[in-house]
Specification:
Layout (H helix, E strand, L loop, with lengths): L2 H16 L3 H13 L4 H29 L1 H24 L16 H13 L2 H14 L7 H28 L7 H24 L2
Helix pairs in contact: 1-7, 2-3, 2-7, 3-5, 3-6, 3-7, 4-6, 4-8
Pfam family, one: LysE
Organism: Cobetia marina
Keywords: Cell membrane, Membrane, Transmembrane, Transmembrane helix
Length: 205
């Protein structure tokens, strides 16, 4: 992995991590109801779940890229189409403040960690992101063990740098998230990122 590809990968993961979705909405809700400190274990759980998905995608995609290049192309196009679909659904959905509400549970650190891990693990957008985007930043057929460790470290650090401040900020901007207009703006910002990313994937050679 080159320095340029590593920095680009880091930035892409950072942007992906802060894109509004089920995990970010749950993190915001936890921050609003329990404060920023309660968001840390959830953020760690979400981030480690993403790293597990990345590692699974690396090893699975290596076999596909080596033996079934045509299928690999189909998977990339399906991933791009799904990202565009998610963007369309986000852009056209009716904003609702109920989506950001979770029970006010002050459990242990591990309970918050498990909640974050399961939220990310159950989100199909996560695995499709890695399936579609990893080949954009690295040649997965030539990754060494050291490259994989570096990619995992970049992934984890980019996600934590992105999502932990979201939890702390949620409590401070609580009044702005109490209007449907603010929710609509979040949805449409995320939609623009997803549609743009999906279009790039579909059109790249």
């Amino acid at each position: 992995m080159t320095l340029e590809s590593g920095l680009t990968f880091f930035l892409a993961i950072f942007l992906f991590g802060i894109t509004p979705g089920p995990g970010i909405l749950a993190l915001m809700a936890r921050g609003m109801s329990q404060g920023g400190n309660a968001c840390v274990p959830m953020a760690v759980g979400m981030s480690l779940s993403d790293v597990c998905y990345m590692l699974a995608a690396v090893f699975g995609l290596s076999a596909l890229a080596t033996h079934w290049s045509e299928l690999f192309l189909v998977i990339r196009l399906l991933g791009a189409a799904y990202l565009i679909y998610l963007g369309y659904k986000l852009w056209t959905c009716r904003p609702s403040l109920e989506d950001t509400e979770i029970p006010d549970i002050r459990g242990s650190w591990w309970r918050g960690f498990l909640q974050g891990f399961l939220i990310s693990a159950s989100n199909p957008k996560v695995i499709l992101f890695y399936i579609a985007f990893l080949p954009t930043f690295m040649d997965i057929t030539r990754l060494s063990g050291g490259d994989i460790v570096i990619a995992a470290a970049l992934n984890l650090s980019a996600l934590l740098i992105g999502v932990v401040p979201v939890g702390y900020a949620a409590g401070r901007i609580r009044r702005h998230l109490r209007s449907t207009r603010a929710v609509r703006r979040l949805n449409r910002s995320a939609a623009s990122l997803m549609i743009g990313a999906g279009s790039y994937l579909a059109l790249r050679g």
